[in-house]
Design goal:
Helix content: 25-40%
Largest sheet: 10 strands, mixed
Shape: globular
Distance between the termini: 31 Å
Strand content: 15-25%
CATH superfamily of the largest domain: Periplasmic binding protein-like II
CATH architecture of the largest domain: 3-Layer(aba) Sandwich
Number of strands: 10
CATH topology of the largest domain: D-Maltodextrin-Binding Protein, domain 2
CATH class of the largest domain: Alpha Beta
């Protein structure tokens, strides 16, 4: 009972700190249309609106993905990261210890971009072993796919960005690349070097995954308070 009382008091203290400060600092990445280079975007709009409904403002800053993850997990100046897919190995309320996940605030349809004139096709994960497939370094793709990469069943080409992977597919250096459909369509519409290949590229009809978009809050009383505030506003 004493431990429970102390835990509740700590959580209420953290929540009071947020209420007084009025600002929640979050890291993010450039991932249009979800997050643009200046941190605006559809995900930022939703996250900001949820916190506003709970009485707080958001200060978001764009970093390279791996740095955004590390800052949100380890630097107390930052209380969380968005948008992120669920990862059980990171979930501090399950078997992990990196972060505490929010309720879903959106979805991300993930699949494969490929050239229309190549033979790429798949109906099972085992089919994918026949192709050269690009991924973005550090991204979660889909549980079975990532497991096959980890055990060597699939060999992938890990690039720095979605745009660089799409360029490689367009040039025939990869058979396909894992990408969010909305990100792919945004790249084709806004990047001149990719727009010229719009007629040569397609998003495969068979989806790999449809992920929830989440905020990953730091594993602390402050993180739990921010998560609860976000969920209540959402």
């Amino acid at each position: 009972m004493k431990k429970t009382t102390i835990a509740i008091a700590a959580a209420l203290s953290a929540l009071a700190t947020f209420a007084n400060a009025g600002t929640v600092k979050l890291t993010t990445l450039e991932w249009p249309p979800y997050v643009n280079a200046d941190a605006t975007g559809t995900s930022t709009d939703t996250v900001t609106a949820a916190f506003a409904a709970a009485g707080a403002t958001v200060e978001a800053e764009v970093f390279p993905w791996n740095r955004a993850v590390n800052l949100a997990a380890k630097d107390p100046a930052w209380v969380g990261l968005y948008p992120e897919y669920y990862d059980a190995s990171a979930d501090a309320e399950k078997a992990g210890d990196r972060c505490i996940y929010s309720a879903p605030f959106g979805t991300s349809p993930v699949g494969f971009v490929h050239r229309t004139d190549n033979a790429f096709d798949w109906s099972s994960h085992e089919d994918l072993a026949n192709y050269r497939i690009g991924v973005v370094q550090g991204y979660i793709n889909e549980a079975k796919f990532d497991g096959m990469v980890a055990d060597g069943s699939l060999e992938v080409d890990a690039g720095p960005t979605d745009a660089s992977n799409v360029e490689k597919v367009a040039a025939g250096r990869m058979d396909a690349a894992v990408i969010d459909r909305n990100v792919f369509e945004n790249l084709i519409a806004t990047e001149p070097r990719l727009a010229e290949h719009a007629g040569d590229l397609a998003f495969h009809a068979s989806p790999l995954a449809n992920h929830n978009l989440l905020v990953c809050f730091e594993n602390s009383d402050q993180g739990r308070a921010a998560r609860d505030m976000f969920n209540s506003g959402l």
